[in-house]
Structure prediction request, 324 residues.
Amino acid sequence: MPGNFSFIAGQKVMVAGGAGFLGSHLVDKLLQADCQVTALDNLQTGSLSNLSHLNSHPNFIFSTHDIIEPFDSQFDLIFNLACPASPPHYQSDPIRTMKTSVIGTLNLLELAKRNHATMVHASTSEIYGDPLQHPQKEDYWGNVNPLGPRACYDEGKRAAETLCSDFRRMGQTDVKVARIFNTYGPRMDAKDGRVVSNFIVQCLQNAPLTVYGDGKQTRSFCYVDDLIEGLVLLAQTPLSEGGPINLGNPNEFNILELVEVVRRLTGSSSEAVFEALPQDDPRQRRPDIAKAKQVLGWTPQTTIEDGIAKTIRYFRQVLSQGEP
Ligand code: UDP
Prediction:
């Protein structure tokens, strides 16, 4: 059931990371809610093609900007979605990833403070690391290797949460933190390396499906429209404390089960091939969303079949245009 977003209508909203997968969907949702939207993106992993349908939209501005550098303008609401989120991308320049999470978030928090704006910060299930508690509740502190190849992202996002919490605790900023679990849907980058996009593209190209490890590790996949709904609800819901709040779909699948879903829905007969499990790859992940249900009245609505089918339609179109 789509939420009522009249509360934020007319607001000046910034979406950092607005050309990315989640950011561009959020921009669409905010424009539908009659906000005036500025998208910032350094285009490291985001793409202008995700926003090209908005080129002449009267309430939309795009600015090429890296949040590692300060930015000044007037906003009522700031969303921080700026950071590469796929392991191959965030690991390709780990120091920059850490700077984006820590310095970039600090810059946006200071902007929010100057503007007396609300800030919604996109954190991640990665802050739980390879979790020893299952499913993961917000009060779990996590199990993160601070020195491994994922650390630039996990620890960067943990430090960003600390900054958000301290800005809020010091009474300076209305900042809210969403911990986003694995999300999929149209506008994922076909070359992103995420499991859903890899499997769909591999099936559509009759290529082998690359399963890392034994495929028994689990993830819980949320369709993008559901996730964006949760983010906007979080923005407009007054909170006595800033979160964090888990946003994700609690339906948990192992990777071999995902192989079967994607093969069935594409009609592909591609076979799985087993490759090495990346270092520190979490064995299991499932959000406890009791807090999101209670505080936001939010639960994901899209079944894996519907969501994957929509994502397959998107990738069929991308591939028919000769990409990737
Ligand atoms: N994975 C896989 N094959 C792929 C890409 C990923 O088996 O082609 C696995 C990966 O090792 C992990 C899970 O799928 O266990 C989810 O990976 P993804 O990169 O999508 O998300 P994250 O690891 O950040 O949760």
Remarks:
- Residues 86-87, 182, 194-195, 198, 210-212, 217, 219, 255, 278, 281 surround uridine-5'-diphosphate (CB under 6 Å).
- The radius of gyration is 19 Å.
